[in-house]
Amino acid sequence: MFPRVLRVVAGLATVTALISAGPLQATASPEVSATPQPPAAAQQSAAADRVPVVFVHGYKGGAWNFDEMRADFRNDGWPADRLFAIDYSIFQSNRDIAGILEKYVDDVLRRTGASKVDIVAHSMGSLNSRWYIKYLSGASKVRSWLSLGGPNHGTKVAKVCGWGVISCEEMEEGSQFLGELNAGDETPGSVRYATYWSSCDLIIVPNRSVLVEGAQNNYVGCVDHLGLVWNDDVSRQVRGFLKQGATS
Known about the structure:
- The chain has helices at residues 4-13, 40-49, 67-75, 94-112, 125-135, 166-169, 176-181, 232-247, and strands at residues 53-56, 83-86, 117-122, 142-148, 192-197, 216-219.
- The protein starts with a helix and ends with a helix.
- With 248 residues, the chain is of the alpha/beta class.
- It has a six-stranded parallel sheet, with helices on both faces.
- Helix content is 34%, strand content 12%.
């Protein structure tokens, strides 16, 4: 769990850069829980009932962004071996990152025996994961897609982070990438879509760029950009949306 002072420092850092980066690696990271564990048979049954969750970080971030949220998921009944967080390099197009994500999801499905995953994406991770669903094989392999502060229709802040980094340039309002991503149906297939946006997000400008037509768009109040992956209420809403999907 990050100490409060580290949260403040990390939050300030996001004002000058968007979120993501790092080499690809698998990441179910079990931790010792202070609560009594159910019998092995019950744990196996719970694991079989939970759709694997793949967390996708954003620009200048990493799998570590989701450490607290993944702990929340474990405490709420998700087995550790059903929780995965991808790492990837930002120095490539979001189209290429989507291809990396496709291979990663296929590996998760092989490892877990599941037929679909849920995707929880932060910031730029929303774009490459949407591309994976819309233009690659994701529509048949993703049950639910959730965007936390995603620049789904661009952000003015991307103008200061580009410097030849194509993934950042693709986040600029009116970019060719966003034109293709948002052409036609913004929520294709039978995937359940949800977004979470804040009026205090200084990275996604305008804030309502997060909203996706056809998705369940949720206003979460005043939460900073990186705080969207640490905020307890946002985490509860995310888990609640995924639980609804399990019963629908």
